[in-house]
Every structure is written in structure tokens, then in C-alpha cells.
Design brief:
Layout lengths: L25 H6 L12 H38 L3 H24 L4
Helix pairs in contact: 2-3
The structure holds zinc ion.
Length: 112
Amino acid sequence: MFCPRCSQQQTSDEVRFCPRCGFQLNFVAELIPNNGVVVTREAEPQKKPARLRRKGVRLGAKLIVLSAFLLPLAVALSVNFDSPIPFWVPFIIFLLGLAQAVYTLLFGKHDL
Ligand SMILES: [Zn+2]
């Protein structure tokens, strides 16, 4: 990267100021990957509910996956202790994940 004011070559693209003339380079560094287009962040808050909803669904999916991983362990424990109680743990996690995903899908929609 070169300084737009004095054409001094910069050692790194992450420098904030030109060491020769003091020109601010952090904006220039932002323009380069966007082909000189100034990045506006106005559209971001509108996208937030959709992103939050996706996050909630992903959390639910993670809980369902976790319960699937715990299921063989729970079955082994149930057989070992001759009791169905360990089997309830992944079942409850699965229900929580499912409830989380369904809740986010149903109630997250009203925010848009
Ligand atoms: Zn300069």
C-alpha cells in the first residue's frame, strides 16, 4: 500500500498513519478490499432479527446433535445401572433443542 498524499510505500497494510506525512491510512486500508467503495453499515441493524433467529435455531440444532452424541453413553449407563434414568438426560436435551428451534422459528418471525 502507498500513501495517497506523499506516495510513501507502507511496510504493512495495517499501519494507521503514514510515517512520513502523518496521513490517516486506516480508511484507505478499508477501501482497498472493496474496490474503493466506502462501506456503509446502515443496512446491518435491519438484518439483526434474521441473524438472531438463525442463531437461535443453530443453538437448538446444537442441543439436538449433543443429545445424539449422549444417547449411546446414556444407553450404556442405563444398562450398567439397570435403570432408565440416565436415558432421560439426552431425551430432555433433545426436547430442549427442539423447543429452542421451534420457539425461535415461531416467535422470531414477529420481529421482522
Ligand atoms: Zn504520506
